[in-house]
C-alpha cells in the first residue's frame, strides 16, 4: 500500500486542513487560510504533511479537495460581473422570488436583494411550452443584436435561463452558440445543464449563481493545479461536491455551483463512515470549525439528501430568507457558530453570537493578530478548555490577556467580569447549536434521544459534550482525526454524479417506455461524468423519483431499485409512494391521482468495505499527572479537570469527567456528567455516568 498515497484538503473560513494517507498511516496539519490566494495555504500544508510522512509531493497519487470558497463568494457577493438572459416577460423572476413570506407578520419585511441588479438582466422573444413544444421560435438575428448590445458592458459571465428549457434546450444552446462566436471570452452557463428542473425561480437562481462564481472558481482551480504541479504534485486533482461524491476538476470548473457546501458534505461522509464502523443507524453529525457549525442527520449510515438548499439566509436563519440553490446536496443545517464567531450585546442587553466571524484575518482576540472583539475561541480559552501554549499543535500561541480584555469589554454593559462573560458567550453559542439541532430533528420527524452524536472539526470536541447535555443525547463519539474530519471524509467518498430531469407525469397517464428511456438516458449522462474520474471502476446507478398528490406544492423522494427502474409500472410506483407518504404523514389521501415531477439518477463507484470495530478490552483509569481549572456550566464555577494526552490512551482506558483529552488538532472536553473510554480504533466514546 506504500505506493498509494492520497491527500485530502479542506479550505475553511479560518483553517485549511490537510490530511495525507500513506497506505494505512495518516498525517495531518492545520494552517491558517490565506484569503487572497487560498492555494498558498494548501502548498504550505502539503509540505508539512509530506515532511511528517517522509515523502516528497511527487509521490502523491491523488488529491481530493473541498472548499467553502464558492459559498463565501456568494455570501460576500464577490463574484464576476454577470448577466442573465431569459424569456421575454420573465426578467424579474429572481427578484420577485415566490409568494412565500419567511416572516409572515413583519409588515416591514425586507426581501434579500437578487444576485444580479435589473440592468444586468436581458430578455429575448421566444417561448417553449410546458410540454417542450416551441410556441414562439427564437430568431438568430435577435440573439446577435443582444450580443452586440452586451459587448459594451464588459460582462465576464452570462447565465442563460429560458422558460421550460429543462424539457427543450434548443433555444438555450442556440444562444450559447451565437455568444461563443460573438463574445468568445465570456463564460456561459445554461440552466438546462446546470439545473434541468422545473420551478423557474430556483432554476434561474442556481444558473445565475453558477455563472457568478464560475470565473473566480475556474481561475482558482487553474492556479491550484499549476502551483501543485510546480511543487512536484502533478497527480490528478478531484473536487468534493455538495451531494457527497467526487467529480473531476474539469467538471467542477464548469459547474462550480456544485461545490457549494462541498466541505460540510465531506464531514457528513466522514461521520457516515464512523457510523458504519460502529453499526449505528441513527447518528447526529456535528461539525464545528472556525466559522460555522453544521448538523446533519445520518440514518442507516447514509446522510440525508435534498434537491434544494439555501445559501446566505439573511433573517435569523429562517427558511426562505436565503438564496435557493437547486442541486443535489446533503441535507444539513448550518449556522454561524464557530471558533471565530464574534459576540456582542444587543439593544435588549442580551449576548448574541455570530454569524459574523473573525476568520483567520485577524482572527479571535487571543490570536494576537489584531482582533479586538470577543470570539468563541476567546471564551473557550478563558473557561479553561484550551491550553494557550499548545493550540493547533503549538503553531499558534494564544494570548489569554487579550482574550480576557475582549471578554471584559463584552461583559461591561452587563456588569460581568471576563470569566462570566465567557460563560454567557459559551452558553449562548451552545444553545444556538442545540436549537438548530432540535429544529432540524423536528422537521425530519426524529427524536434525538435515540441518536448518537459524532463530533469533528477543530471546535466541535470542545462543545459537543455540553451539546449532548442540552439535547439529552446519551452517547458521543469523537473519532481519530476529528480536528480534520472533513478532509478525511474526502478520502472516503466515492466518485459520483447525479443527473436530474423534470418531466411531469401522472400515474393515470403512466408511460413505461418513456420512463425506461428517460432513466436510461440519465444513467448514461451520470455515468459519463463519473468515467472522467475513473475509467475502469465498477459503477452502480441509484434511481429516485419525486412524487406528490396532484395539486400539492412539494414532492417527496421515492427510491427505486434497478429492477423497478428497468421495468417500471404504475402500481409499483404508487405502492412505494403510499408507503413513504404514510411513514412521513401517518396516512394516505384517498381518491387523488399521484404525479411525478422530477427524476434523478446517481451514478457512483463502490465505497470501500468498512471494517467494524472490535470488542473493547477491559482497561484501566487513564494515567494523568496534570490538571487545570475548567469552568463547569452546571455548577457555574471552575472545577479541577484532569488532562490526558489522547496518544497515551490505550484501548479500554477510561477517564471520568471533568477531564480534557488533548491532541494537536483539538481538545475533547469531557463534562463532569460523563465518562470517556478509548475504543480499539482510537475513537473516544463518551457516555453518561451511571449511578
Automatic annotation (TrEMBL):
It comes from the Bacteria. SUPFAM superfamilies: Actin-like ATPase domain. GO terms for molecular function: 5-oxoprolinase (ATP-hydrolyzing) activity. This is Hydantoinase/oxoprolinase family protein. InterPro entries: ACX-like_C, ATPase_NBD, Hydant_A_N, Hydantoinase_A, Oxoprolinase-like. PANTHER family: 5-OXOPROLINASE RELATED, HYPOTHETICAL 5-OXOPROLINASE (EUROFUNG)-RELATED. Residues 538-674 form the Acetophenone carboxylase-like C-terminal domain. Residues 203-495 form the Hydantoinase A/oxoprolinase domain. It comes from Yoonia algicola. GO terms for biological process: glutathione metabolic process. GO terms for cellular component: cytosol.
Amino acid at each position: 500500500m506504500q505506493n498509494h498515497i492520497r491527500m485530502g484538503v479542506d479550505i475553511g473560513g479560518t483553517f485549511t486542513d490537510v490530511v495525507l494517507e500513506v497506505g494505512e498511516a495518516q498525517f495531518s496539519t492545520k494552517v491558517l487560510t490565506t484569503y487572497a490566494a487560498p492555494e498558498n495555504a494548501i502548498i504550505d500544508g502539503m509540505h508539512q504533511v509530506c515532511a511528517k510522512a517522509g515523502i516528497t509531493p511527487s509521490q502523491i497519487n491523488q488529491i481530493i479537495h473541498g472548499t467553502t470558497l464558492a459559498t463565501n463568494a456568494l455570501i460576500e457577493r464577490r463574484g464576476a460581473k454577470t448577466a442573465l438572459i431569459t424569456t421575454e416577460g420573465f426578467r424579474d423572476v429572481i427578484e420577485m422570488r415566490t409568494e412565500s413570506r419567511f416572516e409572515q407578520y413583519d409588515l416591514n419585511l425586507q426581501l434579500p436583494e437578487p444576485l444580479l441588479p435589473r440592468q444586468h438582466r436581458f430578455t429575448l422573444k421566444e417561448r417553449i411550452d410546458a410540454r417542450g413544444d416551441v410556441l414562439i421560435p427564437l430568431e438568430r438575428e435577435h440573439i446577435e443584436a443582444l450580443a452586440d448590445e452586451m459587448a459594451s458592458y464588459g460582462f465576464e459571465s452570462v447565465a442563460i435561463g429560458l422558460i421550460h428549457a429543462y424539457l427543450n434546450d434548443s433555444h438555450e444552446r442556440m444562444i450559447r452558440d451565437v455568444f461563443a462566436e460573438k463574445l468568445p471570452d465570456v463564460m456561459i452557463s445554461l440552466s438546462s445543464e446546470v439545473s434541468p428542473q422545473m420551478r423557474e425561480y430556483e432554476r434561474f437562481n442556481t444558473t445565475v449563481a453558477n455563472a457568478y462564481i464560475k470565473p473566480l472558481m475556474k481561475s482558482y482551480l487553474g492556479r491550484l493545479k499549476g502551483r501543485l504541479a510546480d511543487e512536484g504534485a502533478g497527480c490528478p486533482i478531484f473536487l468534493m461536491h455538495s451531494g457527497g461524491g467526487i467529480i473531476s476538476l474539469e467538471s467542477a470548473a464548469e459547474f462550480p455551483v456544485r461545490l457549494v457546501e462541498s466541505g460540510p458534505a465531506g464531514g457528513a461522509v466522514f461521520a457516515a463512515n464512523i457510523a458504519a464502523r460502529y453499526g449505528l443507524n441513527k447518528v447526529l453529525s456535528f461539525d464545528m470549525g472556525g466559522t460555522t457549525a453544521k448538523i446533519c442527520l445520518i440514518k442507516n449510515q447514509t446522510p440525508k439528501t435534498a434537491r434544494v438548499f439555501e445559501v446566505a439566509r439573511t433573517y435569523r436563519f429562517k427558511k426562505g430568507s436565503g438564496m435557493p440553490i437547486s442541486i443535489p446536496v446533503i441535507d444539513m443545517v448550518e449556522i454561524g457558530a464557530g471558533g471565530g464567531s464574534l459576540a456582542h450585546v444587543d439593544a435588549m442587553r442580551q449576548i448574541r453570537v455570530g454569524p459574523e466571524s473573525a476568520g483567520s484575518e485577524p482572527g479571535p482576540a487571543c490570536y494576537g493578530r489584531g482582533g479586538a472583539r470577543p470570539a468563541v475561541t476567546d471564551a473557550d480559552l478563558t473557561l479553561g478548555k484550551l491550553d494557550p501554549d499548545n493550540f493547533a499543535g503549538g503553531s499558534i500561541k494564544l494570548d489569554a490577556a487579550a482574550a480576557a480584555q475582549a471578554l471584559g469589554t463584552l461583559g461591561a454593559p452587563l456588569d460581568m467580569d471576563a470569566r462570566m462573560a465567557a460563560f454567557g458567550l459559551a452558553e449562548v453559542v451552545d444553545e444556538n447549536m442545540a436549537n438548530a439541532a432540535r429544529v432540524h430533528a423536528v422537521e425530519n420527524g426524529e427524536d434525538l434521544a435515540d441518536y448518537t452524536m459524532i463530533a469533528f472539526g477543530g471546535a466541535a470536541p470542545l462543545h459537543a459534550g455540553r451539546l449532548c447535555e442540552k439535547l439529552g443525547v446519551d452517547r458521543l463519539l469523537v473519532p481519530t482525526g476529528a480536528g480534520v474530519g472533513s478532509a478525511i471524509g474526502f478520502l472516503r467518498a466515492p466518485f459520483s454524479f447525479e443527473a436530474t430531469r423534470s418531466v411531469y407525469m401522472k400515474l393515470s397517464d403512466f408511460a413505461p417506455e418513456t420512463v425506461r428511456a428517460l432513466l436510461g438516458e440519465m444513467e448514461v449522462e451520470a455515468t459519463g461524468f463519473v468515467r472522467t474520474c475513473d475509467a475502469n471502476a465498477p459503477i452502480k446507478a441509484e434511481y429516485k423519483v419525486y412524487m406528490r398528490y396532484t395539486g400539492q406544492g412539494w414532492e417527496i423522494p421515492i427510491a427505486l431499485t434497478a429492477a423497478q427502474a428497468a421495468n417500471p409500472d404504475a402500481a409499483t410506483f404508487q405502492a412505494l409512494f403510499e408507503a413513504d407518504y404514510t411513514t412521513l404523514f401517518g396516512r394516505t389521501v384517498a381518491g387523488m391521482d399521484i404525479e411525478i415531477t422530477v427524476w434523478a439518477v446517481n451514478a457512483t463507484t463502490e465505497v470501500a468495505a468498512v471494517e467494524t470495530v472490535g470488542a473493547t478490552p477491559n482497561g484501566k483509569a487513564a494515567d494523568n499527572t496534570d490538571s487545570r481549572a475548567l469552568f463547569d456550566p452546571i455548577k457555574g464555577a471552575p472545577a479541577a479537570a484532569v488532562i490526558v494526552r489522547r496518544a497515551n490512551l490505550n484501548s479500554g482506558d477510561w477517564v471520568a469527567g471533568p477531564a480534557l483529552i488533548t491532541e494537536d488538532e483539538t481538545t475533547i472536553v469531557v463534562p463532569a456528567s460523563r465518562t470517556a473510554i478509548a475504543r480499539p480504533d482510537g475513537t473516544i466514546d463518551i457516555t453518561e455516568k451511571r449511578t
